[in-house]
Amino acid sequence: MANKSLASRKQTVIAIFLATGIIFLGRLFYLQIIDDSYELSANNNVLRYVTQYPARGLIYDRNGKLLVYNEAVYDLMVLPRQVKDIDTLEFCRLLEITPEGFVQRMKKARDYSRFKPSLFEKQISKETYGYLEEKMYRFPGFFVQPRTLRKYPEPMGAHLLGYVGEVNQSIIDKDPYYKSGDYIGISGIEKSYEEDLRGKKGIKIRMVDVHNREVGSFQNGLYDTLAVMGKDLYLTIDAELQQYGELLMQGKMGSVVAIEPSSGEILAFLSSPTYDPNLLVGRVRGKNFSELSKDPVKPLLNRAMMGQYPPGSTFKMVNDLVGMQEGVLNTHTHYTCQGPGSSPIRCTHHHQSPLDVYVAIQQSCNPFHWQVYRSILNNPRRKNVKENYTAWRNHIMSMGFGHKLGTDMQFELSGNIPSAEKFDAIYGKGRWNAMTVRSLSIGQGEILVTPLQLANSAAVMANRGYYIVPHVVKSMGTDKHGENKFSKVTSTIDPAYFEIAVEGMRQVATMGTAKWYQIEDITMCGKTGTAENPHGEDHSLFMAFAPADNPVIAIAVIVENSGFGSTWALPVASLMIEKYIKREVARKDIEERMINGKLY
Amino acid sequence: MVRERNNVFNNIDWTLVIIYLVLVLMGWLNIYAAVYNEDHKSIFDLSQSYGKQMLWIITSLFIGLVILLTDARFFSTFAYLIYGITILSLIAVLLVGSEVSGSKSWFEIGGFRLQPAEFAKFATNLAIARFFSGQHINVKDFKTRIIPLILLGIPGLLILLQNDTGSALVYSSFILVLYRMGMSGNLLLAGALVVLIALSTLMVGHIYVSGLLVIMAGLLFAFMKRNRRNIINLLALLALGIGFTFSVEYVVENFLEEHQKTRINVLLGKELDLKGAGYNVNQSKIAIGSGGFLGKGYLNGTQTKYNFVPEQSTDFIFCTVGEEWGFVGSLVIIVLFLYFLTRIVNLAERQRSDFSRIYGYGVAAILFFHFMINIGMTIGLVPVIGIPLPFFSYGGSSLWAFTILLFIFIKQDANRNALL
């Protein structure tokens, strides 16, 4: 009987077996059918998304000359786990590193991961790669990853072109396109056209094993995408003119901006002192960047758009135009000038008196322009000085001053044409008048313009009343004509008045302050300026366009701390115009004097 | 009394043999899938583990055949001798064995490795069966209680000394055999309770568990007849329980190695160590979990093939099943094992000879323990203890040993009608 009861214990034992089986099946049901997270984890284990980097778009000048291209460099990568039995000394000799450096790098890589590749040596040159490639089989665990670097065949246009650098964390956080180690345009065209230049990354999905070794492509590459190369850019820049400008401006601080008035295309855009753009590429970038940023002459500063200067006398015709439009000035208006004895603003020249608007521009007469300005502000047409001032300011701004022009480059500054409210704040409401703000009549005081704005105002003069927003990119990719997105801005001044101002500018070049720098067969219309600079020597300014009747170039030149407009800025502008129109400069003596002039 | 000795093949239980063959074959195919690699495509490639496994399978079949042709009485007669030789080999391996991944449990003869611990299982089973089939057995007798413990304890301790905890724990599975032999069912319950208390202590700490025990004792007391002796027993049990909770913590803190502690903590969900102790189980769960309902298809598993799961052809072979054959495949394997175990128990129960019956229960107990621990650990229900899945996992020693273990039983069963 006892045996029988013991035999029934079989049921208990079988029940234990079945219970275990049921628990297992329940657990498997949960793992395999209910919970999806394991499926995802499995993919994360096996799939590696390898980014295919597109080459950055190339950059050409308006004549198809290559300005920026890409050069292949190679990052030497290491997989510490696979490194064994290598001739370290030989390896160090090839790479030109010390054995200590080798040990240090290996330690860093190993600390990061023994199974994942890490960077061993950044951007080794083609030459070193050439040597290395032949001997690579002797160095297991090392492999190279190609990358591209920007290269500049002619070292020019650094501020215009800008530079490319590695993305930082804040960019990565903001834009999911970028991953650590990616490159991005940081300044200049590289920045403003980043999205066109960068192209489109591709992705290859690889399967890897637990040691991160590739074991094949995922679904035979069904989900892989190809990288699309960035679009090529064709600039409006004339490389030859740009280079010539940089040559003329060497040793000087300042800026030259030249624009084709009919299209708003920027022909030359330079800031001096400049630097070789190749300096900010590759391994040497960090060191050079810190050296350049410490340089007291600020070679990294883009003075053409970010330098702000009082326009001085170059502002006088602008003032006259407002006077004519507001009905307080016409060709018959005469004002007196007592020369240096004038009050409240002295004249620096000796000329006839009383004088009309043509002579006033030609001779850059301060008292004349002060009186025009006073008439504008005291115009009985409007209620008070404040309203007249606001009307004046609106006219000025319609000619491209006091606001950003909206170019296709980054970091443009707006200059400054102070508002009436600003003066209210400074002097008190109703407690300022023409006398208080008189320096504005001759382009001094609170007024600030950028070289780009000044060049643009020359284009407005050339066009007799309008400008096309200045820009540096003519076309993109294969689409060589699809241009016109830059709008035409018409000033609030009647074009007829521009003829008068332009005539004054022509006389500047033929009889006035610029007559010594006339160009054979080309009539230039211009205006010199000498801007008082509270920080030191006066700035020398010149703005002009040429030829007078069918302008092809409008230009502004600013040479900092160099005194009269006619000594430095004018000859530089004149040579630039000659170079652009004739492609050849005949006045070698002036050219030589400009090239050799060292002002800092 | 008909003697059916003319042909041994007429009497053997073909169901067991066929399931055995199916399991071995499936194991082989899954080992091939687990380490599949394009360079060595042939499943017969002897340089690869699946090629070697084929050799183990062939030799195992030969061993099985030899056992079937041996006189059934041979095993009961020489049970103690076989046990003794095995014990000697366990001692020898401690002295001259070579160490493989932390366990000093291998004899190395040429390029050939043998693990005596695997063989000790059937040898101990033989000895236990022999002891209980003796005529003087009385379960109430102290000697009857202590001798099996010694028979189990010697190999268990020796294997523990080899640092092979998993194989040593196998001997605890004999509790099922002892239960069948008349050991009180309360002991089985008590065993379950001990495991439960130990686990909950590790999870929430001894204070709470002790508190819970006090409450339970109080409730029991309230519903109990007011019997003084019972109260004393109850109090004694309570003291024992509380003492046990303390000792669990003490043992874990002071005697377990760091990695063993982490394994337990990971299992209990107290620690998430996906790079260290939790790595194996996590990868194993990923592999099985990613299989879904129908699996990724044969040879299409990525997790095991690309080595994300460690030991994927030995202890973690079940991952390949889960990944490539999905829930359906896992279910087939589990049901197959359950049917196999149940069949062994049923066959054991029909034995006329005590020796055969007890031996049969031992076979079921050992296989069940391996099944429970091995699959349990791959799906994260049991701490990682490295023991193979019978017939399935790669390895010569274990396949041979399980084959011997099983075929001795098949032989005994085939001989069940013989005169005692």
From TrEMBL, chain A:
<dbReference type="InterPro" id="IPR005311">
    <property type="entry name" value="PBP_dimer"/>
</dbReference>
<keyword id="KW-0378">Hydrolase</keyword>
<dbReference type="GO" id="GO:0071972">
    <property type="term" value="F:peptidoglycan L,D-transpeptidase activity"/>
</dbReference>
<keyword id="KW-0645">Protease</keyword>
<feature type="domain" description="Penicillin-binding protein dimerisation">
    <location>
        <begin position="52"/>
        <end position="216"/>
    </location>
</feature>
<protein>
    <submittedName>
        <fullName>Penicillin-binding protein 2</fullName>
    </submittedName>
</protein>
<keyword id="KW-1133">Transmembrane helix</keyword>
<dbReference type="InterPro" id="IPR001460">
    <property type="entry name" value="PCN-bd_Tpept"/>
</dbReference>
<keyword id="KW-0472">Membrane</keyword>
<dbReference type="Pfam" id="PF03717">
    <property type="entry name" value="PBP_dimer"/>
</dbReference>
<dbReference type="InterPro" id="IPR017790">
    <property type="entry name" value="Penicillin-binding_protein_2"/>
</dbReference>
<keyword id="KW-0573">Peptidoglycan synthesis</keyword>
<dbReference type="GO" id="GO:0008360">
    <property type="term" value="P:regulation of cell shape"/>
</dbReference>
<dbReference type="GO" id="GO:0009002">
    <property type="term" value="F:serine-type D-Ala-D-Ala carboxypeptidase activity"/>
</dbReference>
<dbReference type="GO" id="GO:0009252">
    <property type="term" value="P:peptidoglycan biosynthetic process"/>
</dbReference>
<feature type="domain" description="Penicillin-binding protein transpeptidase">
    <location>
        <begin position="254"/>
        <end position="570"/>
    </location>
</feature>
<dbReference type="Pfam" id="PF00905">
    <property type="entry name" value="Transpeptidase"/>
</dbReference>
<dbReference type="GO" id="GO:0005886">
    <property type="term" value="C:plasma membrane"/>
</dbReference>
<dbReference type="InterPro" id="IPR036138">
    <property type="entry name" value="PBP_dimer_sf"/>
</dbReference>
<keyword id="KW-0133">Cell shape</keyword>
<keyword id="KW-0121">Carboxypeptidase</keyword>
<dbReference type="InterPro" id="IPR012338">
    <property type="entry name" value="Beta-lactam/transpept-like"/>
</dbReference>
From TrEMBL, chain B:
<feature type="transmembrane region" description="Helical">
    <location>
        <begin position="358"/>
        <end position="385"/>
    </location>
</feature>
<dbReference type="GO" id="GO:0032153">
    <property type="term" value="C:cell division site"/>
</dbReference>
<dbReference type="InterPro" id="IPR001182">
    <property type="entry name" value="FtsW/RodA"/>
</dbReference>
<keyword id="KW-0328">Glycosyltransferase</keyword>
<dbReference type="GO" id="GO:0071555">
    <property type="term" value="P:cell wall organization"/>
</dbReference>
<keyword id="KW-0961">Cell wall biogenesis/degradation</keyword>
<feature type="transmembrane region" description="Helical">
    <location>
        <begin position="142"/>
        <end position="161"/>
    </location>
</feature>
<feature type="transmembrane region" description="Helical">
    <location>
        <begin position="53"/>
        <end position="70"/>
    </location>
</feature>
<dbReference type="InterPro" id="IPR011923">
    <property type="entry name" value="RodA/MrdB"/>
</dbReference>
<keyword id="KW-0133">Cell shape</keyword>
<dbReference type="GO" id="GO:0051301">
    <property type="term" value="P:cell division"/>
</dbReference>
<dbReference type="InterPro" id="IPR018365">
    <property type="entry name" value="Cell_cycle_FtsW-rel_CS"/>
</dbReference>
<feature type="transmembrane region" description="Helical">
    <location>
        <begin position="231"/>
        <end position="252"/>
    </location>
</feature>
<keyword id="KW-1133">Transmembrane helix</keyword>
<dbReference type="GO" id="GO:0009252">
    <property type="term" value="P:peptidoglycan biosynthetic process"/>
</dbReference>
<feature type="transmembrane region" description="Helical">
    <location>
        <begin position="77"/>
        <end position="97"/>
    </location>
</feature>
<dbReference type="GO" id="GO:0015648">
    <property type="term" value="F:lipid-linked peptidoglycan transporter activity"/>
</dbReference>
<keyword id="KW-0808">Transferase</keyword>
<dbReference type="GO" id="GO:0005886">
    <property type="term" value="C:plasma membrane"/>
</dbReference>
<keyword id="KW-0472">Membrane</keyword>
<keyword id="KW-0812">Transmembrane</keyword>
<feature type="transmembrane region" description="Helical">
    <location>
        <begin position="173"/>
        <end position="199"/>
    </location>
</feature>
